[in-house]
Structures are given as C-alpha cells and as structure tokens.
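Note to self: the last two entries modelled the partners one at a time, which told us nothing about the interface. This time every component goes in together.
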Amino acid sequence: MGKDHGGDEIKAVLILSGGLDSTTLLYKLLADGYQVEALTFDYGQRHKKEIECARKISALIGVPHQVVDLSAITPLLGESALLGGKEVPACHYTEEAAKQTIVPNRNMIMLSIAVGYAEARKISEVYYAAHAGDWAIYPDCRKSFIDAMEVAVRLATAWNLVELKAPFAGISKADIVRIGLGLGVPYERTWSCYQGGEKPCGVCPTCIERAEAFEINIAKDPAVRPEE
Amino acid sequence: MGKDHGGDEIKAVLILSGGLDSTTLLYKLLADGYQVEALTFDYGQRHKKEIECARKISALIGVPHQVVDLSAITPLLGESALLGGKEVPACHYTEEAAKQTIVPNRNMIMLSIAVGYAEARKISEVYYAAHAGDWAIYPDCRKSFIDAMEVAVRLATAWNLVELKAPFAGISKADIVRIGLGLGVPYERTWSCYQGGEKPCGVCPTCIERAEAFEINIAKDPAVRPEE
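The predicted structure of the combined assembly is written out below.
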C-alpha cells in the first residue's frame, strides 16, 4: 500500500488546519501511500474548532499530529478578524473581506516552520493545501508566491533537501470536494467557518465558499445540519 | 538627519542578533537616517549573551527592541550545537563545523516573522546582516537564497509591500568591521562566541572568523580582553 519508490514508504509533512482543503489533502496523501506527519498551527485563532477537528481527524486515522503554538508570535502580527481583533465579514470573498481576515505573512511563517521540522527529521516533502479558488485573492496563497517559496525552500535546505508541494494550487475548492467525496473524507468532522458557533454561521466568506463547492458537486455538506 | 525621502524618516525593521554583523548594520542604518525597530530571536541558544548584548545596545542608542520567543518552536527543529544538543566545534569554519551548528531553516523562520511584524506596522523594509564571508557556507545565508526570499517576500506582501534587504550580502566580515570601525560601533558590547563563557573562547569557528576580520583591518577587537 506504500507509495512505490523502490519499496520505501515516502514520508511527508502536511500542514493540517482541520478545514476542508487540508483534510482532503491528508486523505489523498494517505491514498497515495504516503506516511504523513501532520502539523497544525495555533496562531491565536478566534476559536479552536478547526484545531480540535485536526486533532480528532489525525487520531481517527492514526496520523502523528502536533499543534505548533504560535501564541508568542501572534501579538507581533497586529489585528485580524481571524484573531478576534476585527469583526468577521458576512459576505462573499472580496478583496475587502480578505483584508479583514489576513494575518500578516501567516503562510510564510507556517511554511518555514514546517520546512524546519521536516529538515530536522530528514523528511523531504512538505505539503500544504493552498488552492486556486477564492483564497487566491490572498497574496500569500497565489501560485506566484507558492512558486517563489518552492525555490527559496529548495535553496535553504540544500543539505537535507526539502521540497514544498501544493498539489491543489491549480484547482478549485469544488474540485477538492469532488476528490474528497471520492476518497470518503469525513467532511462532517472538518470545520471551515470563521466563527466558532455550535454550527457553521453560513454567512461568512468561507461558509459561502464551502457551500458553493458542495453545490457544484450536487452534494450535501454533512457539516451543515438542517434546522431542527 | 532623517534619510531624505521627501522629508519623511524611513522606518526599517532590523534582525539584531547582538553579534558583530547585525550591530554594525544597526549603526549603518541609523547613520543613513533610518528609524529602526530591532527584533532579536530567542530560539533557545546555548547561552543568552548575544540576546543580552542586543538588548543593551538597543537601550544604549534608544532603538525600540523586542525579543521574539521561539521556545515553543525550537523543540521541533531537532538538535544543533547552537541549541546545546551537540558539542560546539573548536576549529575554523568548515562544512562539517557548519553542519554541527545549523538550526534547520532558522533564517527563513526569523525572516518570515520579521516580515509579518513589518507588514502589520506598514514598515516597508526588513534588514538582516547575512554576509558573503564564512557564513556563506550555510545554505540559508547564501546570496541565491537571499535573492529567492526577496522575491517570495515581495509576492507575499503585495497589499503592504515589504522588501527584504541584505546590504552585506556581497561583502566580507572584514569589510563589515571596516565599516563599523568608521561608524564607531562599540564592538566591546557585541558577542559572537558560540560558548557563553566569561570571555570569548577564541577557538570556536565564529571566534576565529571574528579575530581574522579585525586582523585584516590591523585593529584590536575590544571584546577580547588581554589575560590579566
């Protein structure tokens, strides 16, 4: 069942948020035969629901998982709706909404730590689930940024080469859901909503984006329970 | 006295280790009229002498200074002589000695946090003191890595552009000492030695490199006190 590289299982580090995209990538990597170690970053999110989802999903499928505590760093990064410093916008993704929810340089910080983690363990691949959907309005999710980071990472790790992989960079969230439905990803165990309520709010940018991705697949999001 | 950009003082974030190179860069930026904020990273160094030097020098010249605590991240980065996990080599810089003292992906981690810090404050320049001397044997100090990071940083910060600057990337440590002697840098207040003794050990790679840099300038390192 291991990925066939001369019989050895290939190890990979995955940045797992507990949301839809990275959980789908986790299942895809396992299906491809990778031996995965998952890292979740606690950067002082407004709520801990995603982190709890990441922890539970990893336990469910027996993947080693660590939460990286960035609480000492987050205060340096100013205010963001994701950190509770501003109101979460209730609308579709727009540049304005994205600016409310950006955490400065978050992706580069998480990637650089994940790469150091991999390098220390001689693991040669780091995966993350940036994709070509609405998230691409964030500068540090764009393909051009990912490409530049791939180069910088390769150069920084010349002694224990680590490669950055973003296999969803060219596809949409609807495509990701299609892949995940095929792999049996338990989407009811993932969390996307920016709010930390009992159930997803349905009106924040990521709830709207997620609903559309299921709609395009003519599927029901199992995380959204009908009103009683 | 401010750098002349239409009368405004230009702000810059500087990664200040408390060593010779970054302290010289601090004095150079101030001489060039920059308003500097200094960040020092505590990544669990074997000793805190450099950090203390950075703190005291910043206080001495009235530069805002913060120590960024990476103690939650360092355990993820494995063992290094700099973290106390291995013996500090007593020799000139060699690839072997450098491998003993590397902290995986340290520079990318520090740079990405410094960039996030700058972006949150709309400061458009981040300086660090990588140079073309012996340190260039570390992959993440090489010019090719610095160039790749400059590109990645520019792309990641498209909404509040931050530029990475490594003005010493093309010069040697002896050149840096020459600049610093001209600027009156108080080198007796800087710390380079990998060991945390009462005075520099004189035999670790960075002590040897530092001594050579002063020698080339036919100068005395004021941090090295003669035997009583």
